[in-house]
Predict the structure of histidine kinase.
Amino acid sequence: MRNTLGGLRPWLHDRPLITDALLAVLLAAAAVPLARDAALFGGPAWPGGPGPAGVGLIVAGCLLTALRRHRPFLVLFLVTLAEVTLSALSMGGSPLWPATLVMVSTVAARRGLALSLCALAVSLTGRLASAAARGDLGDWTAQLLVAVLTVAFWLVGRSLRLRRAYLSELRERTERTARAREADTRAARAEERSRIARELHDVVAHHVSVMTVQAAAARRVLASNPDGAREALSAIEETGRTAMAEMRNIVGVLRTDPASPAERGPQPGVQEIPALVEQMCEAGLRTELRVERADGGAREAREAREAVTAGGPNPGGAFPPLPAGVDLAAYRLVQEALTNSMRHAGAGAHAWVTVRHGPGELTVHVEDDGQGPRAARAEAGRASGGRAAAERIGHGLVGIRERVALYGGVLRIGPRTGGGFEVRARFPIKD
């Protein structure tokens, strides 16, 4: 039984005309018998009952309520007119005022405040006109009762309209919130994809460049120095493993299967810069690392290769703790700058990396004394005979600008005084 009612309600809700027609039939079926005792409606009983004309007006007035959703004010006016006509012809009470109450409530629930007030005035005016036609206008008790009931039905209709408007506003607000949430989700996904793209570019560009240089060196000394070639191949293998491990950690965040969660390894930071400098030295780019603190004193100023191979103090120990985002951005900046120096500075170039932790800021400075990317771009363009090779240079520098701007830093990229190229960034550090 409950399932039947649960299925009937949506069916009737989608077909309001059927519900209104049933209401109109019930009103008509109740109005005709009650017309014999019209005193219930504020007037004397009809002697002998209503005639055929009276029954026709009663039935017509009640059946008009079937159209209450489409033309409520017009239906109210016609029902009120039928009630006044019955009172004027029969001089008895009219059983149509319950239908009038239904129409007053309908107009108040489905039309604006001004039209609903007009409907209330029409109903009260029609009731007074019917009482005047019957000659019982002086019965103020009955008139007051009808007026109170009419105002009560009007208030019920207004409450239904306000509730319907409130629920509609809640639905619209929920839809707007859902759309805003979807937009935020899309923006977050786009930002995450952009971050992953920057990370992948930095990892692939650096490690592939190092592996290319080491492979070229191994090829040149393969016949004359097999041990050196073997060391270069071992370095290529290690570099490839490192690159695969970093890419696995980065791309792992794209996995959506909860059964196989992504492996999240620690992100590199400034503590790994000495190892990065050592790797560049092994690849053939002479690189020096200098770490400075707020007191202005240089903690280390030697080639990273010498520091590690000789068992000297590790420059990485001089790095203070940094925010995770700034820590990663500084490492990627050094990585991209050294990769560009190795690719574009030319043979015999020398690079310097300076990391200074000052009061409230971190300064990272990478410079070389090579020919610079502009000369390398021109040379690459002449070698390839087209613009495509030249246009592919510099995407990493765009990523550096985005990283520095993300953390409110200041970046300078350009030629170095005295020749070469430099990348200098200053990151603000908050307590």
In short: The beta strands are 286-292, 298-303, 350-358, 361-368, 410-415, 421-428. Residues 140-221 form the longest helix (82 residues).
